[in-house]
Amino acid sequence: MENPLWRSTPEGEKEIARIEAFSDGVFSIAITLLVLDIHVPTTDQADATGLLSQLLHLWPNMLAFVASFFFILVMWINHHRLFTLIRRSDNNLLLLNGLLLFGVILVPFPTALAAEYLQHRDEATAVMFYTGWFFVIAIFFNLLWRYAAHNNRLLTEKTDRQLAAALTRQFSFGSPLYLAALLVGLFSPLLSIVLSIALAVFFALPSKAIQRLTESGAKQ
Amino acid sequence: MENPLWRSTPEGEKEIARIEAFSDGVFSIAITLLVLDIHVPTTDQADATGLLSQLLHLWPNMLAFVASFFFILVMWINHHRLFTLIRRSDNNLLLLNGLLLFGVILVPFPTALAAEYLQHRDEATAVMFYTGWFFVIAIFFNLLWRYAAHNNRLLTEKTDRQLAAALTRQFSFGSPLYLAALLVGLFSPLLSIVLSIALAVFFALPSKAIQRLTESGAKQ
Amino acid sequence: MENPLWRSTPEGEKEIARIEAFSDGVFSIAITLLVLDIHVPTTDQADATGLLSQLLHLWPNMLAFVASFFFILVMWINHHRLFTLIRRSDNNLLLLNGLLLFGVILVPFPTALAAEYLQHRDEATAVMFYTGWFFVIAIFFNLLWRYAAHNNRLLTEKTDRQLAAALTRQFSFGSPLYLAALLVGLFSPLLSIVLSIALAVFFALPSKAIQRLTESGAKQ
Amino acid sequence: MENPLWRSTPEGEKEIARIEAFSDGVFSIAITLLVLDIHVPTTDQADATGLLSQLLHLWPNMLAFVASFFFILVMWINHHRLFTLIRRSDNNLLLLNGLLLFGVILVPFPTALAAEYLQHRDEATAVMFYTGWFFVIAIFFNLLWRYAAHNNRLLTEKTDRQLAAALTRQFSFGSPLYLAALLVGLFSPLLSIVLSIALAVFFALPSKAIQRLTESGAKQ
C-alpha cells in the first residue's frame, strides 16, 4: 500500500528535484554551447568581400543553430512535462536519464558538422548524421518515458492511466518521424534540416493529452 | 473561481521554479561564455610591443564584454522580477520564454563581432548587428511580459492591475531605445555601444513601478 | 542531544542544498564541456578521403568521450546518493567536496589527451595519465565520504551504521580498481579505457548496500 | 516593526534563492571553464621531446589553474556564508552582486594570461594583472557585504551585530592582503601566485567569527 501522503515525503521529492537540477544544468549548457560554433568572419575575409556578405554566408551555421536550439528546447520542455508526472526515482531511471543526457550533450557536434558541410560535396552524409542523432535521442526519450510509465511504475498517484497511455502514443511518433527526416536527407539535406525544425514545433505544440496534463496541473 | 490558497499548490510553483532554473542556467552560462572571446595576446605579439601595450589594444574586447555583461545581467534581473509576478505557466509562456533565451544565447556571437570589428572598416555593420540584436531581444522580452500580463492571464492574484500596467509602460520603452542606439551606430559605432551600456544601467534602476513591486514583495 | 526535528531546520537543509546546487552545476558543466574536444573534420580532410572515413577516424575521441561521460555521470549519481545521507555541512566537508570538484573539473583535459594520443607512440603515457586521474578522483571521493561518515559525524539520524559501513566497503573498492585499470594501461592502453568504462557501469549498479539505501529512501 | 514570522515569507526567500541560484551558476561555470586553457600538447611537440616532457612543461598552466580554482572556490564558500545571513534583497544588492560576478566571470582571462607568460620576459606584468584582478574582486566582495551588513540592513533578525562586525573585520583583510600579493609580483611573479593560493587557504579556514556563524547555524 502506498502512503497517500507521499507528496510530503522529503526524500522522494528531493531525489527527483536533484535529477531535474542536474538535467536542467545539462540541457541549459548544451543549448548555450551551440553558439560557440558560429565563428566571427576574419577581418581578411571581410576585407575581401565586405562584412555583410560574410555574415550572409553564415546561413548554414544559423540554420543548424536554430534547428538544434529548438530541438533541445523542446526536448527540455517534454522532459520537464514528464518529470511533473514522475514522483520517485530508481537506479534504472537515473541511467536512462543519463542516456538521454548523453544524447543531448553530443548535439553540438553533429550541429557543427551539418553547419560545416551544408553546400559541400558531403552534405548528405553530414546531415544524415545530424538528423540521425535526433532519431537516436528520440529513442532514448521513449525508453525513459516507457520505463517510468510501465504499469505506472514511478508515476504519481494522481496520474491517470489514460493520460499516461495517450502520452506514450504521442511520444512514440517521435522516432519514426525523425527517421523520416533522416531519410529525406538522402535526397535533400536542406529539407531534412527544415523538417527537423518543423518536428520540434510539432512536439512543442501540446497534443490533447498534453493539454489535459497541463490543465489538470493547473486545476490541482 | 480561483482557489485562494493557490500559493500552496506544489504543481504551479514547481513548474515556475523549473522554468526559472532552466532560464537561470542559460543566463548564467551565456554571461560566463562571454569571457571566451577575450584572447590572451600571443607571446610573439608581446615580444614585439610589450605585453602591456598588447593588453591595452584589447579595449574593444573589454568594452564589448562590459556592454554584453550588463545587458545580460539586467535582462536577468528583469526576468527575475517578472517571474516573481507570474504564478503559473502554459505552453505559450514556455515558447515565448524559449524565444527570449534564444536571443540571450546568441549574444556572445554579436559581442565577438563588435569586438573584432571596432576600429575596422566594417565597424558600423558589426556594431549595428550588435545593438540590433539587443533591439530584437528587447522585443522578445516585451512579448513574454505582455503575454503573461494580458488580462492578468498568468499573474499572481496579489498583482494589482495598476502595477502591471506601469511595468508594461516601462518595458515598452526598451525596444525604441535600443532602436535608437542601433541608428546611432550609423554615425558613431563607439557611441552606440556606450549608449547600450547606459541603457542597461537605465533598465537596472528601478522605476517607481519596480520600486512598488519590490516594496510590496518586502512587505508581504 | 540532537533535536529530533532536525529535518525541519531550514539552515541545515539550505546549506546542504546549496552545496548540492553548486556541485550539480560543476558536474553538469564538466560533463557537457567534453563535447568541445570532438572536432569536426576539416573540409580539406573530407575532400581527400570522404567525410564518412574522417568520421570513423574519430573513434578514439568518441571512446574517450564515452568513458569520461559515464565516469562523471556515475560520480554524480554516487555524489547524489551520499548527499541523501548527509544532513549538515561543516568547513572540512566544503573543502573535501571542493577537492572532488577539482578532480571532476579537470577531467576534460586528460580526456582530450587520451583522445589525441590513442594510436600514437605516446599512447601509454597519455592513457595512464587519463585512468590515473580517475584513480585520484576515486581517492578524493573516498576522503569525502569517510570524513562525513566517520562516527556518523555529518549523517542523518536515520542512517543506520551498518548501511554506512557497507557503503564505506563498496566505495573503498574504487581506488584499487582504478589503480588496476591504470596499470593495465602499461600493456594495453585501449583495454585500460574499456576497463574504466566497465568500472563506471560497476559503480552505477547498486550494490546490496545501495539497494537498501534506495529502498529505505523510497519507504520513508 | 518586522514580522517575527519573516522566515516563512515565500517572496523574500524565493528572491534570495534565485540570486543564489544565478550566482551558483556563474561561480560553477567560471570555475569549470578554467580547464579550457590547459591545452593538450600537439603530437608534433610530443614527437620531438616525448609526451611526458611536454606535460611537465604545462606546470605554469597547472599552477595558475590551481590558484584560480581555489580562489573561485573560496569566493563561492564565502558568498554562500554571507547569503545564509542575508534574508532579503534590494536593487543595490542585485547590482553589487552583479559586480562581484563580473569579477568572477573574468577570472579565466587573467588566469590564461599568467599561464602563458610565466617564465616569459613579461611575466611580472602578466602576474600583477592576475593578482591585481583578485584584489579588485576582494574589493567587490567587501562592497557587497558592507552594503548588506550596514545597520543590519538586509540581514536576518537572528544575526547578532557582534558576529556581523567580526565578519566585516575578517573580510576587510582581503583587499590589503591581495594588494600585498600583487606588489610581491614586482619582485617574484611565481611567489605572488603561490601567495595567492595561500590567501585562498587562509580565507577558507574559518576565523572564530565564522566558526560562531557555523555553530549558530548548526544549533538552530
Q: What does the model show?
A:
Four copies of one chain form a homotetramer. The first copy, chain A, is mostly helical and 220 residues long. Helix content of chain A is 76%, strand content 0%. Chain A has helices at 10-33, 43-49, 51-56, 59-85, 91-106, 108-117, 123-149, 161-172, 174-184, 189-204, 208-219. The longest helix of chain A has 27 residues, at 59-85. The model of chain A is unreliable at 1-8 (pLDDT under 50). Chains in contact: A-B, A-C, B-D, C-D.
Could you give a short description of this structure?
Helix content of chain A is 76%, strand content 0%. Chain A is built from eleven helices and no strands.
The end-to-end distance of chain A, rounded to whole angstroms, is 23 Å
Largest sheet of chain A: none
Total helix count of chain A?
11
Based on CA atoms alone, the radius of gyration of chain A comes out at 20 Å
